[in-house]
Amino acid sequence: MTVLPLYNVILVPETNLYIQTDSYKKMTGKDPQTQERVILVAEKQKKKREELTEDDLYPIGLAGIITEVNSNGYIVIRTKKRADITEITIFADHTIAVTANKREDLPEDEVNAEAERKRLDKLKQALVTYTARFQWGSLSRAYIAQLNSIPEVAAVMSPWLFNSSEDRYEILAEDSKNKRIDRLEKMIYENIEMSKIGNEAATAQEEDYQKIYRESALKKQIQYMQKELDDMHPENVSDVRRFEIAIEESGMNPEAEKEARKVLNRLKQEGQNSSESGSLYDYLDFVTGLSWKKEEQKNIDLDEAQKVLDEDHSGLKKVKERIIQQVAVMNFKQQQSGSILLFVGAPGTGKTSIGKSIARALGRKYVRVALGGVRDEAEIRGHRRTYIGAMPGRIMDGINKAGVSNPVMVLDEIDKLSTSYNGDPASALLEVLDPEQNNTFTDHYMNVPYDLSDVMFICTANSLDTIPGPLLNRMEVIQFQGYTPIEKKEIARDHLIPKAYEKVGIRKDQLTITDEVLETIISEYTMEGGVRGLKKRMDTLCRVAAVELQRNHKDNITVAKDQLREYLDMHPMHSNKVKKEGKSGIITGLAWTAAGGAILYIETLMTKGKGKVTVTGQLGDVMKESTQIAVSLVKALYPSKAELFEKNDIHIHFPDGSTPKDGPSAGITLVTALSSLVSDTPVTPQVAMTGEVSLNGSVNPIGGLPEKLMAAQRAGVQHVFIPEENMDDLRDVAQEVKDALTITPAREITDVLNALKIPVENPQLKNE
Ligand code: ADP
After folding, report:
1. Ligand 1 binding pocket includes 353 (Cβ within 6 Å)
2. Ligand 1 atom closest to residue 412's alpha carbon, by position in its atom list
């Protein structure tokens, strides 16, 4: 039997089908004959006949018989019963053979003929009203009027219907004749509505069926056209469909999926050109861009992890040890995150970059969230979507950037958060970092919970002073003390110089940086705890060398020490070196600063007056108190100078660079400076000191000893006094620093004064 494949034609039993004779010949490879039986099969998608395969044909077909071969160039096929196609063969000449069995309709009750006729009339009426106006205008009223069943109406309209081949096939596959007719009727009404929608001139007459079908017609039309477009350009599948697929595939939790679908529906309703569509689009883009899947827990080989950490960073032994411990715990507990680490230290000590290494060691994604200057709670937790320009908070934004649910997230500069009238960002962070709560962290923008419990959080800060207590309690502090000159040299050789070469594109043999030059850069052209400045100097050197190499056509340059001033285009930092000459009343102190420790000179002066004490410089309340203690103590140390104190004013100056909280640790420096002043005994600036002093003259311990001693070494100090109780802390101080300094413990202030040969009148501090 002849097989006629057809695309996008409604195949309905008991209707007339009009086909162009040429098409028939082309599709069947035969000449049409009246009375010839044919099997009509529907194609799933439009294809050239030569490309048609068995899979392109639907399994239910329709039997038909050619009733007319018309001289006007078309044939009429009367369709009969449906057929189950059991086998399809396509031959080399592209003709098709099928084996098929009759497929019967379901037995059904008789329908009411009168009601049926009314239904048909109504449908025809609706059609006639619109035929003239719309696409199917070529169908004449008279022609429509003579059709005597709903399937026939559908058959003649077939070429003008929007419906897809699936929609059409579903009708053929419907076993109930009554339902089939219902579907056809619905399909025609929907198409009428579609045409009306496309035409503003449509009358506003709302008939009962219109309401029912209008909406579904609209959706169908959009869907159909969209699908057509998508099929034509699979590369730009429409946003709505893309989001639909993305939501389905994302693995979102039920709340998130519900919200996303709600927003997607809004987007569909509003259309892509509405004012709101941009923000709806952004939302969907954001939530579908997040990873909602749990990542697999991997066991990390500790040796491998150590290797990665060692590759990326020189030194930092303790820090690396602590990180490896964390990894071991995570392995044991089968967790993707452990305690939250807080790296504290001066800028450029590698806090952020080691976070990146940790991610590499764990084989996880790395993302950095800068918190410096964040004042607004919404920057952490997101803005509610009711605001124009609402955005997700930085945490969820980071997760989105990482594209996984378990990145290593470095929260940088957590000590630079501040509070404003817009809420407290630190309290929002508390929630992020709380293992009890962060599995349902709800960003205001997303408005649905997200599980942050697999994120490994690492925070960094320069100083602990400004971190709110509750936040600090959640974290484990790891100190980055800064580097000694030898460590810096090693970092420069192993990391900074190779990177600088690479950045500029010069080879190792083209630029020679000798040890002497490197040491000079470290000691005279940088003055820092970390290596940021050093990195910049190396970059500069390479850039300048690149110019020299090209301009002078040289193969190699060796930088000489005395060229550094010119090459680096900066003055050596002599001003930060300790002075040579000492004066009475001026003593070198050591301060802990967020930048990693510094020396500072505490200056005192007496002028004629009435015993007033003036204090200038950077001061906090603590500082004021320690000056009062110091003045009283000095008065007690020098009972015979009572008149001097009465008839003179004392001026004490703390230079910039000391932090207000440094007050107490400047105690012994202050007492020594005043003692040197009143006894007129100059002290060399090469001697520095740090220690708290009490009213009875005992020296109390201080913090930040490693940073302070490193600062002393950098500045060229020779001799340092530290509180006796701090002697234990020397364990944390690099040997190189200890070798460079003479370190003397002090229990009483008189230990310091005696060692400096400052005469004291009342060494036992007896009350006079
Ligand atoms: P921080 O976050 O402490 O301010 P960074 O991590 O930004 O410091 O480090 C600044 C630069 O110094 C980076 O290029 C980093 O690679 C480099 N660096 C710091 N410490 C080391 C180290 N121990 N080994 C190698 N490079 C280091």
Report:
1. yes
2. 2
Residue 348 Cβ inside 6 Å of ligand 1? The answer reads yes
Task: List where CATH 1.10.8.60 sits in the chain.
Answer: 485-574
The finding on whether 313 has its CB within 6 A of some atom of ligand 1 is yes
Residues of the chain with CATH 2.30.130.40: 2-103
For the chain, give the percent of residues with pLDDT over 90: 40
Q: What does each C-alpha distance from 434 to 202, 375, 378, 430, 441 come to in angstroms?
A: 60, 20, 18, 6, 10
Residue range 647-654: average pLDDT?
90
CATH 3.40.50.300 fits 578-765, yes or no: no
Buried b (16+ CB within 10 A) or exposed e, 490-523: ebbeebbbeebbeebebeeebbebeeebbbbbbb
Residue 47, phi-psi category: left (phi > 0), alpha (psi -120 to 50), beta (remainder): beta
485 touches ligand 1 (CB under 6 Å): no
Indicate the pTM of the whole model. Answer: 0.65
State residue 252 phi and psi, 5-degree precision.
-60, 155
Q: Which atom of ligand 1 is nearest to the CA of 531?
A: 12
Ligand 1 centroid vs 10 CA: distance in angstroms?
71
Q: Which of 665, 676, 679, 698 is catalytic?
A: 665
The domain made up of 2-103 has a fold known as: 2.30.130
Centre of ligand 1 from the C-alpha of residue 479, in Å: 14
Cβ of 460 closer than 6 Å to ligand 1, yes or no, is yes
pLDDT in tens, 159-213: 777 788 888 999 999 999 999 999 999 988 888 777 766 554 344 434 444 555 5
Cβ atoms of 721 and 689 closer than 8 Å? yes
pLDDT-based confidence at residue 411 (cuts at 50, 70, 90): very high
- For the Cβ of 350 lying below 6 angstroms from any atom of ligand 1, the answer is yes
Question: Per-residue pLDDT for 437 more than 80?
Answer: yes
- Could you give the residue range(s) of every CATH 3.30.230.10 domain in the chain? 578-765
Q: State residue 277 phi and psi, 5-degree precision.
A: -60, -35
Of all protein residues, the one whose alpha carbon is nearest to atom 18 of ligand 1 is 350
Stretch(es) of the chain classified as CATH 3.40.50.300:
302-479
What CATH number labels 302-479?
3.40.50.300
What average pLDDT does the segment 243-253 reach? 87
Out of 2.60.120.10, 1.10.8.60, 1.20.58.760, 1.10.10.10, which CATH number does the structure's domain 485-574 have?
1.10.8.60
Residue 463: pLDDT band (50, 70, 90) is confident
For ligand 1, atom 17: residue with the closest CA = 350
The tokens for 683 are: 């002290």
Q: Give the integer Cα–Cα distance in Å for 630 and 642.
A: 15
Distance 495 CA to ligand 1 centre (A): 9
708 is catalytic: yes
